[in-house]
């Protein structure tokens, strides 16, 4: 069962591509995303069994060497994280919104997983640093009390490390805003 997610961020596009290739050759993992990010970084996301993901991330980190910015493994990632990463979540109704803006792509994935495990919400999107100057953000929806709880959980877990830039909760978003988010 492929419940683990591994992320490695690099400050070199060439080294990121090389490391990603070695990660895929070293372990039985599935490549979710491998792409350049702003400003001149590269990120790779893989999924698979915990042991395989740990092996692949170690290979990616070691191959990246001084070009590795950060890496992270979520051993039991929530299933909603995967469609949110590709903006393919099937959200039918938006009653309230929560937005958590993070300092990095890795932190935004962590925030999405924290939010969906903390409260009964739906992950709409986890946006990774493309055109965002290296930042990321998470958009969630659900009942207002659940959204508030999820955003608070993100702030509690990530604020100490300085990984959250800003967060907000919007009750009953305007009807013209909703289609732009779907």
Automatic annotation (TrEMBL):
CDD domains, per the entry: BMC_PduT_repeat1, BMC_PduT_repeat2
| Zinc keyword on record | no
InterPro entries, sorted: BMC_dom, BMC_shell, CcmK-like_sf, CcmK/CsoS1_BMC, Micro_shell_prot_PduT
Q: Which residues form the BMC domain?
A: 4-86, 96-182
Q: Provide the alphabetized UniProt keywords.
A: Bacterial microcompartment
Which compartments is it annotated to reside in? Bacterial microcompartment
Gene Ontology annotations for the cellular component aspect, listed alphabetically: bacterial microcompartment
**What family does the entry list?**
Belongs to the bacterial microcompartments protein family.
Protein name, please? Propanediol utilization protein
